[in-house]
Amino acid sequence: MPPQGQPPAWVLDESDAVTEDKDVATPAPEAEKRKLQIVWRNVTLFVFLHIGALYGGYLFFTKAMWTTRIFTVLLYIMSGLGITAGAHRLWAHKSYKARLPLRLLLTLFNTIAFQDSVLDWARDHRMHHKYSETDADPHNATRGFFFSHVGWLLVRKHPQIKAKGHTIDMSDLLADPVLRFQKKYYLTLMPLCCFILPSYIPTLWGESLWNAYFVCAIFRYCYVLNVTWLVNSAAHKWGDRPYDKNINPVETKPVSLVVFGEGFHNYHHTFPWDYKTAELGGYSLNLSKLFIDTMSKIGWAYDLKSVSPDIVEKRVKRTGDGSHHVWGWDDAPSEQKVAATIVNPDKTE
Length: 349
Description:
This protein has one domain. α2 (about 65-90) packs across α3. It is an all-alpha fold. It is built from 15 helices and two strands.
């Protein structure tokens, strides 16, 4: 079992596994409240991107060579890990440490994903945790599924995001020369890694440039975007809250399947410093954990932070919704018994 670790320095006020470092953004005065300001350039770009992705998906299943399909899946895995194991677990939450070879590899994977530089991604994600479900949360899920999924990228940011941005300490990541290099040359590295090379490499085994571009670049890129966005939308809406019933994030296994273990979101927002982002120890729904554990075995990852079962159980009993397996029927919360009885009328106390 990985050594028990403390939450990262930027997470404030963590005790007995409290929910998360969440400040409350000051509500905007009535005069400041405004309608969403749509950024039509972004709307246009995303519409054409998704049309191209649908066409690329058609080519993936009907026209592309089998080697191109395998290459596309590999790109999906690499870019996905660049977000989950890299920008999220390593850099945004500092839930483990990585030696230079792994930091270089994950930075490359992250650049293939094209979801902004690590510095920008981590800043927004730290905002999301510190001001979760407030106006200072970039993808505030209380504003609806569409907004938290993609709408937040189609409108101008809420003024609270800029007002609270200075409270996010990024000095730890700015001290990393690898991340500074990526940020400095991002506008050169990103097109090369995300679009140009993925379109060119398949031509080496005879694939057409047309197919390679729409399948390996556009379809793959748009697919990774949408499964990542599911963590912001679906994983804040549909599912159980076994660890903290007082927050929006939920446990959703389908999202974990496609986003390499990121769908156990009620656990993650309750224990954000755990490198597993889940209580589960298996790998079937947590490819990112498998990757990090593998890197740990070869010495590239170390100081993996986790939460003891005792702390998890105490937190489940204190704030969970009763859906966790530690609850027996006799000591489950009364509201959980009522819900179970409605589903199964034969169930009695």
